[in-house]
User: What shape does this take?
Amino acid sequence: MNQKEKISAWVDSHREAFLEDVKTLCRIDSSKGMAEPGKPFGDGPYRALCAAEQMLKGYGFATRNYENYALAADLGTGARELDILAHLDVVPGQEGWTITEAFNPIERDGVLYGRGVADDKGPAVAAIYALRAVQELGIPLKKSVRLILGTDEENGSGCIAHYYASESEAPCTFSPDAEYPVVNIEKGRLAGEFSLDFPAEEGGARLLRLTGGAVENAVPPRATAILVGVPRMVLDATAQQIRKQTGMQVELSTVTAQEVCKAAESEHMTFQKVEVIGRNAHAAEPAEGKNALTGLLLFVSLLPLTKNKLTEAIRGLVELMPCGETDGRSLGIAFSDEESGPLTLAFSKLSIDGTSLHGLFDCRYPVTMDGHKLVKTCEAAFGRYGLVFDGRRLRAPHAVAADSPFVQELNHVFEAYTGLPGGTVAIGGGTYVHDLKNGVAFGAFYPGSDTRMHAPDERANVEELLTSAKIFAQIIIDLCA
Assistant: This one.
């Protein structure tokens, strides 16, 4: 057998072990939790890191643990030529799963289902098995490759910042956290925050509180508000209007004063809970979802509430980020270029209580756009409605030349193992390689694969994961042997 045939045969013969290792990691809810001593991102990410470390050690790899922020395993003893970056944390499991529960991974008809099977535990295991294949086939390496597993990619990548505080980047780096062929451009990102303080209202028809969005990089599928002083018939009519206009579910229910807060117990009034149910999506592709938060704000804006600073701000949010709009047009920031496509915007988090409002949107902007002008435009737009805008969390776009030898090598191997055409693509999502000079995202799924990342029923095609392990093994050999 030639080398390609040997690699393919080895990976195929380890199919069941491969799947069980993916399931082992995906049974762990590794969404971010409260920091604890020795657990910088909470218990779940820590347990996932420990499970991966045990897995790697069991396969004969020496590991280095970076204070439970990240984990590294090396293959080869020469100068390091290649880094592979993957992550073990996930977004929350959420509701709405139909095939299985979020952290009970299963395989059905050649597809794995469960939170993390695609983003990014399945691809991480593909990288582990690539190292195993090269090692167990006895292929000598003149240079070395390092697999780095992080635990905070979904919430700012503090894990990788910690790793690179003491380590240098390799000449070549890829992260299997996107799609094929080679993702050489990642759009810039603005996590735009806005806030408002206002005096508490004592009477009249008013909003007591509102919450929507669990993470900043996803379209919120649910949003809830508590109202007082609004006739039920008005709520019913408004709910029907929103259902018809947006296609989202609107559920109304009566709650007791005690359920709202102790301070409300003396009001002897009826409190109404409004919940809007939409559809989740990754913030980089907000048009794929139905934003329950913008639907709820539209609902609230139509009610006859007492006019004040809060209702003015809500009207402003509805006008600046209207329900169904994802291109930033109403904010005055719509833009597109040939290299990376259009700007996208997801209104992802909002909380309102009796005296304050705090919200956040996730904007992915094209590679040729001026990020600082983007921030200035947003400051002016939010300021018109009394909202204080904070645009400090601005991240510039990332690009690697499409004709670089590294990109050409990745495409060559991808074409050899899949028969599909190579090339380069731009994405709105940000990966671990965003700040690395020669870093690209690569795999682990074919163009057009519906992985439902960040959504219920997240899925991964098993053959695509196995083929990715073969591709990664060949790249290791080509670059390091």
